[in-house]
Design goal:
The chain has about 190 residues and is of the alpha/beta class. It has five helices and seven strands.
Length: about 190
């Protein structure tokens, strides 16, 4: 299960410390909102993905980063379950991208693994992500420095895990919403569970 003890909306916390008032999330000077989470198992990571799906809509870009084995695909698998898409969500490392159509009249999930791509958005041009974005939810693993040009409105999730010879299942996540879309979105449902 997730341990919400470390979870908080950093922007709201910063606003409270600075004497600000108001309900709902608020951003820092750049408009970013952030939430820290602790996930203790792969099942909890999948459940987090299902909760994240409830916040997503067509046109959303989610960027996932973390070491190999951190849980990016596991999170995306839960997200696909929550979106009600067709097909098993697996790592698209060798095919670069997979499209999972919705089975429930929602947006399709476009799952991209940019690990093998060295360039930026130009190298990914053949994927037509800019064309797919308005009607899809796009999740890009290893996308930092490669897909930010698609939209300023994006959700970045960094997954940290212990490295080395360990069987530790604990993951520390930082969820950062950028742009007005995410400044207006309450991320606190992600810390429930």
């Amino acid at each position: 299960m997730e341990a919400p003890a470390a979870a908080h909306n950093r922007a709201a916390h910063n606003r409270a410390e600075s004497g600000g008032a108001g309900d709902g999330p608020a951003g820092d000077a750049s408009g970013a909102v952030s939430l820290d989470l602790v996930v203790t198992s792969p099942d909890a990571m999948r459940e987090l993905g299902r909760r994240l799906a409830a916040l997503l809509r067509a046109g959303d870009l989610v960027m996932l980063s973390g070491e190999l084995g951190a849980g990016k695909t596991t999170l995306t698998r839960g997200l696909g379950e929550g979106l009600g898409v067709r097909g098993a969500v697996t790592s698209p490392t060798f095919v670069i991208a997979r499209v999972h159509p919705s089975l429930v009249a929602g947006p399709p999930l476009v799952h991209v693994d940019a690990y093998r791509l060295s360039g930026g958005l130009d190298e990914m041009e053949d994927l037509d992500l800019d064309v797919s974005l308005p009607e899809s939810v796009i999740v890009v693993e290893w996308g930092e420095g490669k897909v930010e040009e698609l939209t300023e409105q994006r959700l970045q999730i960094r997954i940290h895990r212990a490295v080395g010879d360990t069987t530790d299942e604990v993951r520390h996540l930082t969820v950062t919403g950028l742009g007005a879309r995410w400044a207006a979105t309450d991320l606190s449902p992600l810390s429930e569970g």
